[in-house]
Amino acid sequence: MDALTQSDSLREEDRALRRQLGFSEFYKGDIHNTKNQQAETADYENASLFLTNLPLFYSERKLILALLPHGPFDRIYATSVTPPGVGHNGSSAKVVTFTRRGAERLYAFIVSGQFIVDGRRVRCVWNSIKQRAPNAAQYLSRVMIIRVQKAVLDEKRLIKLLNHNLVYQLEQDPKFTPAQDDSDITQIEVRFCSFRAQAEAFRILLASEVPEAKVRFGIDPLADDPKHSANNPTVDKWAQLGRFRRGG
């Protein structure tokens, strides 16, 4: 007998409440916590995309790797892949970029029909569960660069720290490179699939558990030209027209 997913086990009134509050049926957090509930976000501020028709058994890592050859788009703030629900034959994903401009670039690429994964033409819409573009400092990213004594943080300890403290996905396995100026120092590059709750949380964790490590954010390989201002999101003329028609 197949195991029930969280969505399958929900009563219809629970499904309706989740939709009303702006949550997915697969969301596992506390929907009654106001900090978790969707903030009021205008269409032109939304930087969240909803992708469908992805392959079965897909993952955040596979999604990032599939996008890399087609970039740059923008720094990735968050990614989340959901397995197909009842009546669907493909996975779906949520992708949030750091800027509205970056989300528009990614949206335009996917809706052009050029993003094909394992023979599937991926579809994309603006996520109805909106998320305002973080527009955070340019140096923030999902990529962490760690410089530390080899004896202090090796691969075994790094993976143990990750597995015991975070829920995370990596674009690739951590890369260890000897420092050119000191043979006792190693430089570690860790590429998370999300900045939110992954790279940002790992930086805090390292400050606590490995205080001698020097940590900085690296360059997201999907990042756009740094000349694009993170504080100048593009205004969506179609969203403006919709508000005009609604009298908003």
Largest sheet geometry: 4 strands, antiparallel
Look up the CATH topology of the domain at 38-126: Alpha-Beta Plaits
Question: For the residues shown, what is the average pLDDT?
Answer: 83
Number of helices: 7
Helicity level: 25-40%
What are the low-pLDDT stretches, counting only 5+ consecutive residues below 50?
1-9, 227-248
CATH-level-2 architecture of the domain at 38-126: 2-Layer Sandwich
Shape: globular
Oligomeric category:
single chain
CATH class of the domain at 38-126: Alpha Beta
What is the end-to-end distance? 50 Å
Order of helices and strands: HHEHEEHEEEEHEEHEH
Roughly how many Å is the radius of gyration? Answer: 20 Å
Total E-strand runs = 10
Going by CATH, what is the homologous superfamily of the domain at 38-126? RRM (RNA recognition motif) domain
Biggest sheet: strands side by side, in what order? 2-3-1-6
By helix and strand content, what is the structural category? Answer: alpha+beta
Provide an overview of this structure.
- By secondary structure, the chain is an alpha+beta fold.
- Among the domains are: 38-126, RRM (RNA recognition motif) domain (Alpha-Beta Plaits), CATH 3.30.70.330; 143-217, Alpha-Beta Plaits (2-Layer Sandwich), CATH 3.30.70.
- 28% of the residues lie in helices and 21% in strands.
- The protein has 7 helices and 10 strands.
- The protein has helices at 6-9, 12-21, 60-67, 100-111, 155-165, 195-209, 237-246; strands spanning 48-54, 76-82, 91-97, 116-117, 120-121, 123-126, 143-149, 175-178, 185-191, 214-217.
- The strands form 3 sheets. A 4-stranded antiparallel beta sheet has the order 2-3-1-6, covered by helices on one side. A 4-stranded antiparallel beta sheet has the order 8-9-7-10, with helices on one face.
- Strand 4 and strand 5 form a beta hairpin.
- The chain is globular.
- The protein starts with 5 loop residues before the first helix and ends with a helix.
- The model is unreliable at 1-9 and 227-248 (pLDDT under 50).
